[in-house]
Design brief:
This protein is an alpha/beta fold. It has four domains: 13-118, NAD(P)-binding Rossmann-like Domain (Rossmann fold); 122-152, no CATH class; 163-277, Tetrapyrrole methylase, N-terminal domain (Cobalt-precorrin-4 Transmethylase, domain 1), CATH 3.40.1010.10; 284-408, Tetrapyrrole methylase, C-terminal domain (Methyltransferase, Cobalt-precorrin-4 Transmethylase, Domain 2). It has helices at 27-38, 52-59, 88-101, 137-153, 183-191, 203-207, 225-241, 260-269, 282-289, 321-325, 340-349, 379-385, 398-403; strands at residues 19-23, 42-46, 64-66, 80-83, 104-107, 120-124, 127-131, 167-172, 194-197, 214-217, 245-250, 274-277, 303-307, 330-334, 357-362, 370-375, 392-396. The strands form four sheets. The chain has a five-stranded parallel beta sheet, with helices on both faces. A five-stranded parallel beta sheet has the order 10-9-11-8-12, with helices on both faces. Strands 13-14-17-15-16 form a five-stranded mixed beta sheet, sandwiched between helices. Helix 7 crosses helix 8. Bound molecules: S-adenosylmethionine. S-adenosylmethionine binds next to helix 9 and strand 17.
Length: 410
């Protein structure tokens, strides 16, 4: 095994105020010098010519320029050397002069013989990430970028690095596909002490949770809508008061048929700090991913999102279905699979044409996503024929025809 077969020994150098010599004034030097300035090194560039960018740094007094050919004595008193010229013989002379003075030297042209390497470097929140590949700079840079991205998104963090402020964070997880969740939301989930999650919250994100994050699955709480909500309010308030960082994690956006504001009120009444990270909401994103726009110029200038969890005529319903029937734009129905036949009937009775196109998008953004097309007149039979089950978004209006012109030829 030769000397160059051994792997490098990683170390962080404190170069601030220390003489650091860069031989060569071309583009490689231009790339290396800012990193040296950033750590406070006393930078000396030795080269008959330098790039305009380096000249600018000389003019600003940030580096010293020795306008000459390399001479071994340039390395006298140096702590660190970088040989960046385009001439291998010069770089070799720099390397030998550095060896003679026992100074570590990076060779831009030949990492094999060099005594030091420049890693791919990045920084995030006080952490320096330096990746030394096996002389494969592109691979090192790609690994560095992946690590930085994971740090930024909170996917990799030590327990101590988490910014945990006691309180409740309402996080919207988007329609289901994990990539459609916001960076801020993902970070909050990964940094939490407790995650209180709903059935529709993106499951794959929960699979990635660090082992010491407690997961409370609300779907498993005793049934009954208001008892369940009271229990959720009690859990999030109690945990936050005990000093924990609680994430209330839901599908879509917490304020769109998500009872999120009831949780805000419960927190406020208990004096618990509460913040909100919105999510992509399904009535817009599920049709979007399925290729159906909720508005289209000259076709629909409004879209109305309605909960269909109560049928028309139900005493507790707050929706005026005859007014909805008079709208010309897009109507997006949520939680409406069961009551869709009654809703379609009410819309037709109120004046909307029975030929109005309808799209039912099931399991939006998930691998099982599918779209069932119908009209208001055929919706009931199509739902049965295709055995449609929740979750589904039902889009009613001419935008469906725009997206599927062949299915609705007049
Ligand atoms: C209780 S609401 C929650 C909505 C959520 N807060 C949002 O902003 O999207 C549940 C309804 O959202 C719709 N929904 C949510 N995610 C969906 C998805 N991935 N595909 C189809 N419909 C979805 C369905 O209509 C479902 O019945």
């Amino acid at each position: 095994m030769g000397v160059s077969d051994f792997p490098p020994y990683p170390a962080g150098l404190r170069l601030a105020g220390r003489r650091t010599v860069v031989i060569g004034g071309g583009h490689v030097a231009q790339r290396r010098v800012p990193g040296l300035i950033a750590v406070g090194a006393e930078v000396h560039v030795v080269s008959p010519e330098i790039t305009p960018a380096l000249e600018g740094l000389v003019g600003a007094g940030e580096i010293n320029w020795h306008e000459k050919e390399f001479d071994p004595t340039d390395l006298d008193g140096a702590w660190y050397v970088i040989a960046t010229t385009a001439t291998p013989e010069v770089n070799e002379a720099v390397h030998l002069a550095a060896e003679a003075r026992r100074v570590f030297c990076v060779r831009a042209d030949d990492a094999r013989d060099a005594s030091a390497w420049t890693p791919a470097v990045g920084r995030h929140a006080g952490i320096t990430v330096a990746v030394l590949g096996n002389r494969e700079p592109r691979r090192s840079a790609a690994v560095r970028d992946s690590i930085l991205e994971a740090l930024r998104e909170g996917v990799i963090l030590s327990r101590e690095d988490r910014e945990r402020t006691p309180g409740v964070v309402l996080v919207g997880g988007g329609p289901g596909e994990p990539d459609l969740m916001s960076v801020a939301g993902r970070k909050a989930v990964m940094e939490a002490d407790v995650v209180v999650a709903d059935r529709l919250a993106p499951r794959e994100i929960l699979d990635e949770l660090p082992a010491d994050v407690e997961l409370i699955d609300v779907a498993k709480l005793p049934r009954g809508r208001s008892a369940q909500q009271e229990e959720i309010n009690r859990i999030i308030v109690e945990r936050a008061k005990a000093g924990q960082c609680v994430v209330r994690f839901k599908g879509g956006d917490n304020f769109v048929f998500g009872r999120g504001y009831e949780e805000v009120i419960a927190c406020r009444e208990a004096g618990v700090p509460v913040t909100v990270i919105p999510g992509l909401t399904s009535p817009v994103t599920v049709p979007g991913v399925a290729g159906i726009p909720v508005t289209h110029r000259g076709v629909a200038h409004d879209f109305t999102v309605i909960s269909g969890h109560l049928p028309p005529g139900h005493p507790e319903s707050l929706t005026d279905w005859s007014a909805v029937a008079r709208l010309h734009g897009t109507v997006v129905l949520m939680m409406a699979v069961q009551n869709a036949p009654a809703i379609a009937e009410a819309l037709v009775a109120g004046g909307r044409a029975a030929t109005t196109p309808v799209a039912v998008i099931c399991d939006g953004t998930m691998p099982t996503q599918r779209t069932v097309l119908a009209t208001l007149g055929t919706l009931a039979e199509q739902l049965t024929a295709h055995a449609v089950r929740p979750p589904a978004i039902i889009v009613v209006g001419e935008v469906v025809r725009v997206a599927h012109p062949d299915a609705f030829s007049d």
